[in-house]
Amino acid sequence: MLVTKACVDTETPNRVFGGRLSLQLESCEHPGVPEILVQLVKALGERGLEIEGIYRVPGRASRLQKFIDYVNANPNVVSGNLAAATEPEILDSRTISSAIKRFLALLPESVLTIEEFSSVITEGLDDREATALTPVKLAQLLLAMRTSLEQKLEAALSVDTDVVQDTERKWRVATLDFIVRHLREVAALQARNHMSPRALSLCFAPSLFGCPKRCRKNSLMVELMIEHWPWLMKSLESGKQRAPSEHEGFRSFAEVRRYAYQFQRRRFFEPDLLT
Description:
With 275 residues, this protein is mainly α.
């Protein structure tokens, strides 16, 4: 169920579910990522990511709401052992996976926005599955996505007069990186949990984008992120180190196209391939 953000209290100090990212308790292990999110992902991992339908099968609504109410009423519990502080029967695997999605969905400013990826949509993103994309089309989409992520990263690293927005952007980038890496760990076990990148993207796109609009297109973008995140991040890092030239555009597309061809060829022999 998609939660309407207008109905969520975002002004209460120290609010966890429904509070701004940059006002959350920060994880020491993952700077810029809320500790609540890190603890929930750890707790889920301890219970096993091989659970069939993990993230697709929701937890009981009553248990989830009880957990959310408990954490929001006792925000200091996040700084300790969250799993030990709550009743074991409440914090089961289904409740944890639902809580992760709900935390992201309730953020006043979503981790991803349609505006940030307008260039990907302009590139001709349609409702085809990622597995049905031709190498050339995949290369075009990845290049557009890399450009969008690059702009998102540059905005996060820039110094803005609006300190709150500046900090919020940094947290959004760090949280996106953390959650996509986690989803790749889940997808790596798809032979057992039956959660492919596509299945995970359908579950997480509404939460990451914070709205149901262009649901299929949003989920395809998330699917591509899950499949190609290491390459996208490595490409961003190498792009920052390389001096621009008049041939940069051609060289970039040739590089992406070569990667796309190699990926599609390997996937033909390994359908469950992740980069």
